[in-house]
Amino acid sequence: MTTENASYATFNAANFSRDVLHSLQPVLVDFWAPWCGPCRVLTPTIEELAVEFDGQATVGEVNVDDNPHLAAQYGMRSIPTVLLFKEGQVVDQTVGVVPKQVLAEKLRALVSAATYHTCQVENAVVSGGPMKNLYHPASIETDITCTCGATVHTRSTVPNMRVAVCSNCHPFFTGRHKMVDPAGRVEVFRKKYGTPLA
Residue 48: is its pLDDT beyond 70? Predict the structure, then answer.
């Protein structure tokens, strides 16, 4: 990911698919141009959001002059336009200069939803181990589809859910269905999400 400074990302045609559409975090993208006065007014807000949500969401910009195809793809008719992405899809947008609080609330809602989803996903992956899912305690046999493309038959505590990672990709595991340091990793999980151990 290319950055112009330490706080926010610069997206372009080369990295947009990887860093925005396939990001595991929510992504806020500011479509702007250097000659645009309102864009320059919004820039400090984008920088502050990048710092505030560091590690929880990706915040960056697209220069529409340098990336006309991206601007056309997302129907930019006015700038600045901010698009919010979740799982590769545009889920919200704003046009023009908006208060930081408005963008922060929208991004915070996406981060909260993503954290809840990740908590359920990780609990589902370790449902055969020392944790029970806080929301769906009953385990079922199911197939999951990982972001790596693998389909794995597993026990899941969350029925009818598209689980994000298989046991090969999940940080709790190394190799197929071999759990590594379960006590330590589960403790990290517990601290991160405040989820009680079974």
Answer: yes
